[in-house]
Amino acid sequence: MTKPEKKDGTVGKALEILDLVAEVGRPIRFSELLANSPHPKATLYRFLQTLTNQGMLSYDMDRQTYSLGLRLVRLAHAAWGQSSLAPVARRHLDLLAERTGETIHLAQMDNGQVLYVDKRNQFSTVEMFAAAGKVGPAYCTGVGKAILAFMEKPALERALAQQAYLKYTPTTLTSPQALCAELDKIRAEGFAYDREEHEPGIICIAAPIRSGGNRVIGALSVTTTKEKHTLKELDDFRPILLKCVQDIGDEAKAWQFPVQS
Fold first, then answer.
1. Four-CA torsion 85, 260, 255, 242, nearest 10 degrees
2. Residue 50 placed within a domain
3. Res 1: pLDDT
4. Do 138 and 35 belong to one domain?
5. What is the CATH number of the domain that holds 34?
6. Where does the pLDDT of residue 163 fall: very low under 50, low under 70, confident under 90, or very high at 90 and above?
7. CATH number of 190's domain
8. Burial, 32: exposed, middle or buried (Cβ in 10 Å; 0-12, 13-18, 19+)?
């Protein structure tokens, strides 16, 4: 899916470079960045110097590599406390994980994608894609569909246009029409399933978190494996999941969170 052209000037270009370094997931050399950057060599070098001087990037002189800087860590901690549901939801996630014995994911929407802001995985040794800080597709995850279903129409239309509709598994919804039909059902029932739509063998039941004025501010899921439970068995967790999202939403009314987009 082609990303829309951004016209945010110098700041936008600098942030795109930070995104590029972050996406690699390891220290990266200038030559690698240059190969994946639209900027000329001199321009890229100038941005890297500025970002390093400002502490947004760190440069290892021995290895000649760039990595994300500690200033970003401080900013991330501040964002986690100011804009994330995680501090409000923490004790509720602990309780839900204890009562279900399953993996719990807390997510919010970020520019049409799901941002996992917290996770409980106390009793599971199964590796899953979702982890705190990771970004995933909204159209094929339980938390993503739960949020999409309750977004206001203008925000929903923008989010739907941002979906890639890639086919990850045989059950992935790969068209806006199929997704919208699913969202109608979720809206009517108040919860969503992930039927192995993003990862083979991984299923979940998810519900939206709504605050004042029924504004959707996130979603919560109980996630497990097909080998351990069936979708029908996940319904046993529905009452405590719905109670949990209601409690988080009630507690979050005193907080000001960004609108889901």
1. -60
2. yes
3. 39
4. no
5. 1.10.10.10
6. very high
7. 3.30.450.40
8. middle
